[in-house]
Amino acid sequence: MKAGWRWFGPSDAISLQEIRQAGVTDVVTSLYEQPVGAVWPLARIRETAKACRDNGMTWSVVESVPVHEDVKKRTGNWRKYVENYKKNLRNLAKCGVKVVCYNFMPVHDWARTDLHVVLPDGSVTLAYDQYEVCAFEMFVLKRPGLEKDYDVATRARAKKVWAKASAKDRKRITHALLLGLPGTTDDATPDGLRHELAEYAGIGGATLKQHLYDFLNEITPVLEETGIDMAIHPDDPPFPIFGLPRILSSAADIRAMARACPSLHVGVTLCTGSLGANLKNDAVKIFREFHDRIHFCHFRNLIHSEPGVFRESDSHLFGNTDMPALMLELLKEERRRGKEIVLRPDHGRMLDIDKGRTCYYGYSYGGRLIGISELRGLEAGLKYLLKKPSLLRTAPALRCCRQGR
Question: What is the pTM of this model?
């Protein structure tokens, strides 16, 4: 694998030199200051790529080139924004950035309900509780029609959750669910979110998916021309929230996109944290089926207390995703392609060594430093075992790993 790391630009609390010291070879970043839908200045792209090179690394993945809401809704100036997107792809390709991680989720990029879960060792992680989300929608957003998305039992439990919640907990839930995207400060308000949700009234899942396919097929000639791979990020979480349609939450959704968009430049970011939020998803099986469309990876793990209620794991290696088996699939695909795939650790715990830094939630230095070390160690161990068939013969479990089971 190519060891990747998400960097939020010059304002990031973590320097490029520190990132390089973590063993990183490939930087994952964006021009976060650029308005959504704007054409990125070629000089700024070159400047960012040079900053990475000057620190001994390569800017190989952009995360992300945001897709304007007009394109998702197919309204307003959507044609202009598609043309601007094509210009950005060409400019990125000129500077050697050939993988674009993006999402097509309407309005909200991600959701958590607790940004400060303190673990027994004092480190801090993130959590999600579908009953707290439902309570927020019922009592803060007061969203009409939520009974279509939440059954009677879920709504009843959400009412109890909100009734028992302290003022501090209600504020915590509300703050978390209105948080802006990573790398931004554009936190929403209840009124602002209601307005944005209203913009999607009448746009269902099938319509939004078709808009995605139309967008991808529209830019495919540019992908073929430049060699850029589009790697869509799965829905986070991969189930309905705020009444918004979901478009890429399962193997079936990826399969439908692949049928509608035949170019292999149209692919996926294999994010185990997002897909793993739904216990029905098996990241290993998804990797096997869509191996030739996986252009970028986010590896991390989750611990579920029940369906729809989870926290991010103490370790990138342990949780509901079988990380050794998944890493083995990655190594097999790299061998098939004859080149490595960029993989970044996703969401690390906040450790004591990060106190005093202003890091975006989930993007501390210490937690991700441990994460990338774990993943590199796992990769090295599997590569060693694959070169030693005699060792594999002595351990049935390892034999299964070698065969990809």
Answer: 0.90
